[in-house]
Amino acid sequence: MEQTTNPLEKLTLPIQPDEMEWRVQMQTKTGKLVVVPYITNRCVMDRFDKQFGWQGWQNEISEIQGGFFCKITVTIPGEEGKPPTILSKMDGASRTDIEPVKGGISDAMKRCAVQFGLGRDLYNYPRVFIDTPDKFIPDWAHQQLEVLVKKINDGSYRGGEIVTLKASYQKT
Questions:
Q1: Cβ(122)–Cβ(19) under 8 Å?
Q2: What are the tens digits of pLDDT across the range 63-111?
Q3: What is the DSSP annotation of the chain?
Q4: In 33, 84, 92, 141, which residue has its Cα 20 to 30 A from 61's Cα atom?
């Protein structure tokens, strides 16, 4: 079989700690936070710019009842005199509770980017709990989350499907 290169190589690289954010999904009855990683819309734009150049991709937003569709179209240069390939993907999202229009557009664009493979690796992350009575991610947990991401990305993570972060694990 012929060896091929991935024309979406920069899009599908593992998400780095500075390209993602974590949000609280819920607080358990025992007081732990369940947090989930997500890519930012800035990450989407930066990765597409790095992969295709700012002129080599575009997005198109359409408003639908209750939300938005995003269509991203990219131009993959042809090899050895072959014409370029035009590729489009589309996905949608609802309006969000906070900043409904901006948030909905951003979510639609991020969901569409996942269709190209960007951020798809986040779906394989372990379930992350933070042992805290706080309703928000405490400052001490951010460093631990960053270490977790780095270990996942470099292949040294040897934990299970569930990770619990505690203040007592904080390195000083």
A1: no
A2: 999 999 999 999 998 888 899 999 999 999 999 988 999 999 999 999 9
A3: ------TTHHHHSPPPGGGEEEEEEEE-TTSEEEEEEEE-HHHHHHHHHHHH-GGGEEEEEEEETTEEEEEEEEEEPPSTTPPPEEEEEEEEEEPPSSSHHHHHHHHHHHHHHHHTTTTGGGGGSPEEEEE-S-SS--HHHHHHHHHHHHHHHHT-----SEEEE-GGG---
A4: 84
State how far the Cα of 155 lies from the Cα of 80, in Å rounded to an integer. Answer: 35
Query: Given CA atoms 39, 44, 46, 50 in this order, what sign does their dihedral have?
Result: positive
Query: 2: pLDDT confidence band, cut at 50, 70 and 90?
Result: very low
Q: Which two tokens stand for residue 81?
A: 């005199």
Token couple for 150: 């780095």
Q: Which pLDDT belongs to residue 172?
A: 53
Find the length of the chain: 172
Question: DSSP per residue over 138-166, as a string?
Answer: -HHHHHHHHHHHHHHHHT-----SEEEE-
Please tell me the distance from the alpha carbon of residue 40 to that of residue 119, in angstroms, as a whole number. 10
Angle at CA 25, nearest 5°, toward 111 and 48? Answer: 25
CA distances 99 to 8, 50, 109, 116, 158, Å, are: 31, 28, 15, 26, 39
